[in-house]
Amino acid sequence: MNELGEREAAAVDVVVVGAGQAGLSGAYHLARAGIDHVVLDHAPRPGGAWQFRWPSLTYGKVHGMHALPGMELTDADPLRPSSEVIGEYFAAYEERFGIRVRRPVDVTAVREGSAGRLLVESGSGRWTPRALINATGTWDRPFWPRYPGQETFRGRQLHTANYPGPQEFAGARVVVVGGGTSAVQHLLEVSEVAAGTTWVTRRPPVFRDRDFGESAGRAAVALVEDRVRRGLPPQSVVSVTGLALTDAVRAGLDSGVLDRRPMFDVITPTGVTWADGRHVDADVILWATGFRAAVDHLAPLRLREPGGGIRVEGTRAVRDERIHLVGYGPSASTIGANRAGGAAVREIRRLLSRETAEAGRA
């Protein structure tokens, strides 16, 4: 970036990248602290990643949706699509608290600016903040594993990120790959219309038949937090909590829909094959294999550790105290994002106050 281009950038104290749960929480706390900020979101409308969820994921099927700070989500129809319910809630939240989100803005890079500021670049403008809250989540980075023969498969392959709902699988033979909540939801839906379903996972799924209490929740979050503290790529909190044994899941286990097989070894033109010679014919392979943190735009700052992740203390990137990752690792849950938004703003407030005091002494 040349000097002229940087002079054309708008100076602001904080840029928030992303307007999902984490980004709106951060913006709420920034406004309460009286900190000048701008919120940038690449999505076309309010709702964060929820706006892209499949229509059959109704609000009543959503687990662990926590209200944004300062405004409860009440009287939501459990039969309505979660994309509509939460999209409308986020839109009302933005309006109520005067959060002016600039969208669609696709942030392409965050790099070092001048005079201690960052430089945020996008196709819609540039900003030079003193600090940044990164709240980009994971939805934009679906993880596709690679297996021998994958390119030869003559059927359809798709990921949870573009799952259309069960109706498109009528009469098809479907292999669902993945051991998380999305895989289970897909199986329970698709099995009602498909000619047959097969569930495969790398590890045997763990079902929990009791409420996930506060102490167990803290322990699970601590495991995820330990990874990001060591600079390893974060795992989702769900990956260490196990799968809730709901009535629907019990029915799926009883019927055999949730009869899990170990991971196959090869994909063939007509299906999947195990090393012992077993084969399952398939028309569709549905990869419910999760997501990775969408942080490629931070690459110019060289925040990654040798282990592949960004080392984080609280919400602060260890390699750059100006960068706070909210909704990353242990704060990826909705309640975690709320708490992390407040924690990030408290640290940013101290940073800005210290910089102002140092400038006054200079």
> Percent range for helical residues?
25-40%
List the uncertain runs: none
Tally of individual helices: 8
Structural class: alpha/beta
Largest sheet: 9 strands, mixed
Q: What sort of overall outline do the alpha carbons produce when their principal axes are compared?
A: elongated
Strand content: 15-25%
N-to-C SSE string, H for helix and E for strand = HEHEHEEEEEEHEEHHEHEEEEEEEEH
> Compute the gyration radius: what is it?
22 Å
Q: Give the tally of β-strands.
A: 19
Characterise the protein shown here.
This protein is of the alpha/beta class and 362 residues long. It is 27% helix and 22% strand. The protein contains eight helices and 19 strands. It has helices spanning 3-7, 21-32, 82-96, 181-190, 214-229, 238-241, 247-255, 334-361; strands at 10-17, 37-40, 101-102, 107-112, 118-122, 125-134, 156-159, 173-177, 196-201, 207-208, 243-244, 260-262, 266-268, 271-273, 279-281, 284-287, 312-313, 316-317, 320-325. The strands form four sheets. Strands 1, 2, 3, 4, 5, 6, 17, 18 and 19 form a nine-stranded mixed beta sheet that branches. Strands 7-16-8-9-12 form a five-stranded parallel beta sheet, with helices on one face. The chain is elongated and about 75 Å long. The model has no long low-confidence stretch (mean pLDDT 90).
Write the layout of secondary structure elements.
Elements: H1 3-7, E1 10-17, H2 21-32, E2 37-40, H3 82-96, E3 101-102, E4 107-112, E5 118-122, E6 125-134, E7 156-159, E8 173-177, H4 181-190, E9 196-201, E10 207-208, H5 214-229, H6 238-241, E11 243-244, H7 247-255, E12 260-262, E13 266-268, E14 271-273, E15 279-281, E16 284-287, E17 312-313, E18 316-317, E19 320-325, H8 334-361
Parallel strand pairs: 1-2, 1-6, 2-3, 6-19, 7-16, 8-9, 8-16, 9-12, 10-11
Antiparallel strand pairs: 4-5, 5-6, 13-14, 14-15, 17-18, 18-19
Helix pairs in contact: 2-8
